[in-house]
Amino acid sequence: MIEQTVQTDALVVGSGFGGAVTAARLAQAGFSVTVLERGRRWRPGDFPRTPLLNDGWLWARGRGLYDVRWLRSMISVQAAGWGGGSLAYANVFARPVDQTLDDRWTADVRRAGLDRYYDLAASMLEVTPVQTDPSTGRVPDRTATIEGLSKDMGIASATFRPNLAVRFGDPLMWQPNRFGSPQRGCTFSGDCVAGCNQGAKNSLDHNYLAVAEAHGAQSVTDAEVIRLEQDGDAWAVKTRSSDGTTAHWRARYLFLAAGAVASTELLLRARDVDGTLPLLSRHLGTRFSGNGDYLAMSNLRHVPGDLTTGPTITTTTILDVWERSRPVWFQLQDGAVPLVVSELLHHALPLRRLRQRWRRLRGFDNKKTVALLSMGHDAGSGRLTLDRHGALRLRWINRRQARLYAAEERVGPAVARLLKSRVHPVATWSLLRTPVTVHALGGVPVGTDRNNGVVGHDRQVHGYPGLYVMDGAALPGSTGVNPSATILATAERAIELFIRTTLGNPHWQAPEMTTTRPLPVPEDAASAWMQRRRYVTEEDGVTIHETIREVPLDRPGAGCLDVTLSMPSLARFNEDPLRHLDVTGTLSLADLPGTHAVTGTFQLFPPGRDYLMRYDLRFVDGTEREWTAVGVKKQVGRGILARYRSTTRVALTVRAADGTQAFTTHLRILPLDVVRNGASVRGTGFTFLRRRRAFLRFAAVFTRDLISHSPRSPRKDAS
């Protein structure tokens, strides 16, 4: 066994999003830096592509790409290698929506304090939304499918193409990026989460880590940290390589950035097993979050095209919905499932022949498989501990995230209804109720002292000067979006503060900051739109199709009013003093040739008015002249029969906006149309149960008002 000791200014443990930022900025500021990475250096062409688990896929089998941790109540998946999670993440650069964050998110980690660092990180990763496939000249089929689905659901404004850390351009030519690292353009193979053999993914080895190495940082791979301790005014770290060789490292400053799970585990072992850091806060391991991750799969065999092409994620849909009478915010993203991953799972799972026969019977096509990844705000109440055998375990209670999980599960039926394909959650959830997260956060909470946190706002561990935590372990909770951008931005801010304080230079900043410009944030607009929609759809609503014919029916050119009445929210409807519904449709009349598209409002049994119902419509004729049409249903006579007649007859007054023409006509709902109109009533909730409940509530309100509504005596100004 060979022992060696290396001295440096700063040791950075981990080369993922927190570690890469830390290493780059420290090196640029003149510190001697050593980055310790347990995984290998993966280069384009090195990533596994055979459907054999032992062929470089699993960390547990030959130190492969994926480290899958079964934490008893949750499964955590992360990548291992030079570049950390960026090697296998889905490239999405997203910022949290401030309005969705709870009070654990202090000002220093909110958007106002971080947006300049988000812009800096976005510039470093050269992010952009998905471009067109160079082989087809179109966006991926999966992108078009999800955008079409969103449009069919009436939420097109909630769907956008997120910024991606992908290099688009010539897929054949190697060219150096702005940091001198050679890359090629994306081939839209859909293999992003399996590692990019094309070299088109803007993973951290092509930017931040390239900067770190260009400024003298030493990179050490195959170096897994197994012990850390304080040694006088320095920090001592012990690593072990895959062949059993150990090494010792000393530095004045130690920065942990091994990922939320691993960084927390290192500190827990130092406190509870090795006893080298006994003063670590009792809050260590708390406030763990799975970022509300929920993964489901579907085989959209009725959808045309190859759904595995393109970057892994190309669209995000923000959903802000009512769940058990309270709002739940989360987002949904499409996901390409690489063909090699489908084959890998097929070979790894049992009953292969039986599954093959079932697939043939069902018309299963690997090129139609799509992953649906949801993420939102869970309670962030998990706790990581070491059991008596020293194994890491998570205490996670699903019922604390019950509303979020229920809302995420409801996406499946909506997709199935519109795309005619069932959506299945991952087996660990459907069989064991064990969630899977690819976005582990928390475990090393921030606080003002040891009594309420493990690290301070500067990321320094309480009681241990020179020891810092720079990754997602120090985030206060779920981001609700892909967290890589937030880990980058918070690390940028923290390391800038460290460098300024340590060097005594209050003006130091990353050299790239001077050329950084603000970047569009499409997630903000989508979330704001969805928040407004959630407000106006409280308690859900209904739509009604109504046909009213002009009388006499045998009048030459007799027309009709054919409209859809929409009430998006029963709660807003009941609060409205005039009980409005929105109107869209067409109007044709004998005295006004042509069929005209109309919009407007409809009042249904408004309290205190001298009419039962009223239409206020607007339209433009074929000569571009503007018109208004006011239709009124008034009570005539008494009794149920009189009420029926009154609600099926409309006096419609039509006026030109310029005052040059006006006339009144009469319309009537025929008995057969009464039946058709009544049968057209539909609830508009997100799920079948909510739609049915909305229908029943509206039916009860309508029936009550139909029988009991009593219009007041008419006034002269009533119109």
Structure description:
- By secondary structure, the protein is α+β, with helices and mostly antiparallel strands.
- It folds into 2 domains: 527 residues, FAD/NAD(P)-binding domain; 173 residues, no CATH class.
- Helices cover 25% and strands 26% of the residues.
- Strands 23-24-25-26-27-28-29-30 form an 8-stranded antiparallel barrel. Strands 1, 2, 10, 11, 12, 13 and 22 form a 7-stranded mixed β-sheet that branches.
- A hairpin with a 5-residue loop joins β8 and β9.
- The radius of gyration is 31 Å and the shape is elongated.
- The C terminus is likely disordered.
Main attributes of the structure:
elongated; disordered C terminus; 31 strands; eight-stranded antiparallel β-barrel; seven-stranded mixed sheet; FAD/NAD(P)-binding domain; alpha+beta; 16 helices; 719 residues
Mean pLDDT over the residues = 93
The largest β sheet comes out as:
8 strands, antiparallel, barrel
CATH fold label of the largest domain:
FAD/NAD(P)-binding domain
Low-pLDDT runs: 715-719
Number of helical stretches of at least 4 residues? 16
| Number of discrete domains | 2
Over all CA atoms, what is the radius of gyration? Answer: 31 Å
What's the level 1 CATH class of the largest domain? Alpha Beta
Architecture of the largest domain, CATH level 2?
Answer: 3-Layer(bba) Sandwich
Strand order, largest beta sheet:
23-24-25-26-27-28-29-30
Secondary structural class? alpha+beta
Percentage beta strand: 25-35%
- Secondary structure tally: strands: 31
Helix content: 25-40%
Q: How far from one another are the termini?
A: 96 Å
- CATH homologous group name of the largest domain: FAD/NAD(P)-binding domain
> What characteristic shape results from the CA principal axes?
elongated
